[in-house]
Write a structure and sequence with these properties.
By secondary structure, this protein is α+β, with helices and mostly antiparallel strands. It contains six helices and five strands, in the order ααβββαββααα. It has helices at 3-6, 8-13, 58-79, 108-121, 124-128, 132-144; strands at residues 21-24, 28-32, 42-46, 83-89, 97-103. The radius of gyration is 18 Å and the shape is globular. It starts with a helix and ends with a helix.
Length: 145
């Protein structure tokens, strides 16, 4: 059995596992998350088994984010959330997936990101990352990578 044989997302793509398909194109598809944070929570996955989104080819990246935007528009029309939170994961299931979560003020995801932003703004070690010399060094390192 290969990794792809045991991957639930690969099984969904192949039609070997059930999923509520919301939207798809030739390279990506969006499905309802079976463990939703809120009504309308979707996952967008590439058809090809790739653990990390940054390892997708250019066409797959374009497809993945185009499908994500289309589904986010559908979520906004259907549920009128404050916004649709988007983040990429792949640690628990090593097949790229983008979370699209309808988010409302004060809900668990909103509180989580507010706490994360508060953390990001507070610790001295992170505050040093905002200094001009640190930002310049970081920019130079990323540009030359």
């Amino acid at each position: 059995m290969t990794e792809n044989d045991s991957c639930i997302f690969c099984k969904i793509v192949a039609g070997q596992a059930d999923a509520y398909r919301i939207y798809e194109d030739e390279l990506s598809l969006a499905i309802l998350d079976i463990n939703p944070f809120s009504r309308g929570h979707c996952l967008v996955i590439p058809r090809r088994h790739v653990p990390w989104w940054h390892d997708l080819n250019e066409e797959e990246v374009e497809s993945l984010f185009r499908v994500a935007r289309t589904v986010a528009d559908k979520i906004m029309k259907a549920y009128s959330p404050d916004f649709v939170a988007m983040y990429a994961r792949g640690r628990r299931i090593p097949h790229t997936h983008i979370f699209l979560v309808p988010t409302y003020k004060g809900d668990p995801l909103d509180r989580f990101f507010n706490a994360l932003e508060g953390f990001q703004e507070a610790p001295p070690a992170l505050m040093k990352l905002r200094e001009k010399s640190s930002m310049q060094e970081t920019a130079e390192r990323l540009i030359s990578a």
